[in-house]
Specification:
Helix content: 25-40%
Strand content: 25-35%
Order of helices and strands: EEHHEHEEEEHEEHH
Radius of gyration: 20 Å
Shape: flat
Number of strands: 9
Structural class: alpha/beta
């Protein structure tokens, strides 16, 4: 239940972007919504960008209030609030309201956005220079498929599953990417292994490997388990060992 925020500033100290990382499916409106929407992710980013736009307008309030057209708000005088999904494979929103009413989306987006703004306001850049370093590798695990028409669902062997691991280092911030919907405990176990205090996991990154459960989760035939393409006994250790090895090369 932790939101991670990385703040980017220009050399004058003005924020130009924040990276938001939170482990939740952005599915408040459910499958009955036929509107094009970013759901919780979009509402959160919109709140954060609007907040900082309001700060900019207030600073320019010596005369008529400055109103920036939308095309100038991002990348111009506004900031970019980039949502990234954390290890959310087993995490739904705290509340859901299927349909096309945006009220709950906007309310929860504001709650999360307010926390992002609070965290961002407490961040003070200590370095004007940044070292960027990146690496990728692919790990392969045995695969299986479930026949969900049978009760209980029956598993059979299937093609191996490739999982792409990515690591982007921003000074001492480790941004670890995994090409699937990773369960929360895998990120927690990676935190325990990571040599870096600030370790962020981005999922749905550079590919689509489906649900990636932690080892204990395979004992329960939930929706996520029976739609995962993976056999137990491989993915969690391959991800943690792979990313930890990549971090040690930095």
């Amino acid at each position: 239940k932790t939101v991670t925020v990385v703040r980017f500033e220009d050399l004058s100290g003005k924020p130009i972007a924040v990276l938001i990382n939170y482990a939740v499916h952005s599915v408040i409106m459910g499958s009955k919504n036929y509107q094009i929407t970013g759901d919780l992710a979009g509402a959160t980013s919109r709140f954060v960008e609007t907040h900082y736009l309001g700060e900019i307008e207030s600073r320019n309030d010596s005369g008529p209030r400055l109103r920036l057209p939308p095309q100038e708000r991002v990348g111009g005088s506004g900031i970019v609030a980039l949502w990234t999904s954390g290890a959310a494979g087993d995490q739904n929103p705290t509340a859901m309201e299927p349909g096309e009413d945006f009220s709950l989306v906007n309310a929860l987006g504001q709650m999360l956005g307010e926390q992002v703004v609070r965290v961002s306001s407490g961040i003070h850049a200590s370095m004007s220079d940044a070292r960027l370093w990146g690496i990728q590798q692919v790990v392969t695990c045995p695969g299986r498929r479930f026949d969900r028409t049978k009760q209980p669902p029956q598993a059979t062997d299937a093609d191996p599953v490739n999982i792409r691991l990515s690591l982007l280092m921003l000074n001492n911030i480790a941004v670890a990417g995994v090409s699937g919907e990773v369960f929360t405990l895998i990120h927690q176990h990676l935190d325990e292994r990571s040599p870096f205090r600030n370790t962020i996991m981005l999922t749905h990154t550079n590919g689509s490997s489906g649900y990636i459960p932690d080892e204990t989760a395979f004992d329960h035939l939930s929706y996520e388990i029976t739609t995962s393409h993976l056999k137990p006994g491989c993915a969690e250790s391959a991800i943690i060992n792979g990313l930890a090895d990549m971090m040690n090369r930095y």
